[in-house]
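ok trying again, last paste got cut off:
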Amino acid sequence: MKKSILIACLGLVSLGLQAQSISLAGEWNVELGKSGSAFAKSKRASQGEAKRAILPGTIDTNHLGFAPKDTMETTHLTRLYAYKGAARYSRIINIPKDWKKKPVELFLERTRPTWVYVDGELVDSCNFISAPQRYLLPKKVKPGKHFLEIVVDNGKGVPDQVYGSSHAYTEDTQTNWNGIIGRIELQLASSTDCKSTETLAGAISSRSVVPLAGAVPSRSVASPSALQMPDFAKDFHIKGAHFYANGHRIFLRGKHDAAVWPLTGHVEMSVEGWMKYLGTCKEYGINHVRFHSWCPPEAAFVAADSLGIYLQPELPFWGSFDKKDERLMAFLHQEGENILREYGHHPSFRMMALGNELWGDIDKMKKFVDDFRKIAPDKYYTFGSNYYLGYQGIKEGMDYFTTCRIGGEGWGKYNTHTRGSFSFADAYDGGMINHFHPNSTMNFDEACDKAGIPIISHETGQFQTYPDYREMKKYTGVLHPYNFEVFRRRLAAAGMLSQADDFHKASGLWSVKLYKADIEMDLRTRNMAGFQLLDIQDYPGQGSAFVGILDAFMESKGITTPEEWRQWCSPVVPLLEMKKFCFEDGEKILAKVKVANYGGSSLKGKKLKWRLAEDEGVLNIFSYDEGLVDVGELNGVFHVQKPTKLLLTLNIEGTEARNSYELWVYPKKALEKKGVIIARDLNLEVVKVLEKGGKVLWMPTASSHFVAADDTLLQADNATPYTVGGLFQTDYWNYRMFKTICENNKKKASPGTLGILTNPEHPIFKGFPTEMHTNWQWFPVIKESHPLVLDNFAKDYRPIVQVIDNIERNHKLGLVMEWKVGAGKLLVCMSDLEKAAKYPEGKAFYQSVIDYMRSADFNPSAEITVDELKKKLAEKPRLVSLKELNNISQY
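nice, full thing came through this time. structure:
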């Protein structure tokens, strides 16, 4: 703000001072499909062809592009005014008399490759996309009026790979816009030092020095000692496995940023806009942002400086770092130099990566880092974030490592992992959270203790939430949510549109608990230096990945609050280490209490209060240490008369640090199954029981048999259309994309579901406390399940426990169902409760089901005949054909 005021003051003629800059914001002429100069025709027909555009802006924001031909797009939001190619922007400029004999510069804060003409003569061209372009006007351009033309081309000028492999360009988020955004000014030039590494045609330039202001920004990187560093960035350094600032150990609580700006389709350029965005991040405890394959503008750094948030920009690339591709290497090297020289003076800019999930020449990556370190030695560098998907491990030249794993591992092992969830293509059973019985002891010590440098968990989370179709009304800008419309129509066709809001809420509330678990695994790791979530914000591309706890607009989805989220995403977090969350009456509880202390001061002398039901107590903190601090233990015995859910709370007196954990305790008793027929196969004998008015609990396993209408047997397993597998956590990222990847890599695909939806007031849960959504006590039941596809059953039929399917497939899925069948009553449970019952929570669910069936409450409202049931079970459900959706990071 002070800078803006200063510029404004310098521009006031009334003060008698010479203007330092002249804004060119406002109305311009624009001609689509035009390159070169129109100066010779500027007063003739060409002007009739021109349209009006407001700059700063784009072809999209000026509504000058072309309407979409495809309104069925689901891989990303759809541009309503798309355009790709050359666009010639022109206007008259007036150079003041008092600028006579002074070097004049054209400043374009952010744009695509450009060619600049003054009075019909080419000044130069430039292809900088991460930093401003600066053109030094020829000396013969005297004070007075001149015809300025800027040709912007979003279809050429950068290496081909960049268009689909950088969030500076990709249609997945920011879009490949054409225009000029940010400041557009004439300035009194401060420097004429200009170099270029390639021409826009793509070949390596033979010119060593050309008059291309912008090829190397005139700003140089200030040394750290010359800066007045705020405390959050003061003395930022690495010692061993951790980052330090202002003398204290810090933990980077980060988010991934992919340039998601749904209203404009281009990055925000104002400090105010970035203050709002980063301010929301800070509300949710975020102190670090990693910019995935792009670099934000000056305003982002200014806002981050003010708010105390550490930024990691990246080169605009994602893919093969091929040293033989001289054009790509020259472009990326120049972009890196530009980023460092343009933004390197900002206190918030402390780290930098070479791009996202790179593979290719590791020696070339090191050479880049070595070169950049000479330009800005105060920064810390890594190779591409999660380069080689972590399999190559740590290499010389890396100051820190942003990764999902440290080196390779055997399939089915997790000893190198640095995050809790994965796709089924990248880790057995989707990673540790989905695979292991729920607990709060798992961490990544085994991987991180061997590293020796700071490890940042890469793209942590990626837990899907079913979309909120009410969000569609927010899209009032240049991008339209046709993807939402398609998904909504699919759900309506499947007969479940009335459940959309419940799907969103149930999957969302469960995803928040999963994010908590993943984050706390990082905090429990003594030598973990931070995480970069994917994400607190939805990602509208790559098949539409609704993985945020906030929507694409960084606004609440109604599934958590900043206050709740900060329980586990704050500088100081109390932690409870327990081997499990479910117990039986009389069982001992033994838990360790720790604190992740990155708050900048010792907690010695503080009291940590705990409370569990009617019991409470205090633990004294004796440690001076920062980092992961051991506080003490909790031990005791659970006593309950009935199944009970408990909440164990922790808080540090005199601070905002608090946290909570849900526990479940069940009476200890043997299973009582009398009064109910339990069947594995729906054979003729079982059918006779139903016809005579009996009660049947049918639990088909993966090897069970369905009975067709002609009494023949039909095999039903997870490979048929009849069932899907049991997935505990919500599906990772996007079902369609990772199904494609799994199939291409000959790996088992994820079951693709998003948790359960149920009514906690249903009498079947009298012995099994639950919410409407999945929680930790459901683990053994869900892991042993194979939900039944109910597409062929009545449209209005709803299971007692429904499994939420993904947006691509939209099956109606049942985990627990009931019908009146003839004179009898049938309850179907698509989980092997005999196996689940080896855990207290599984046994409690099993008993609760049987108790329900023996009670008067067991009175199904839906009726079906034996013949109809046989027919429905024999019919193949509708088959869903999904097109391939590939990911870049599959080297």
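cool. Residues 1-16, 192-226, 705-721 have pLDDT under 50 and may be disordered. Residues 45 and 519 are 62 Å apart (CA to CA).
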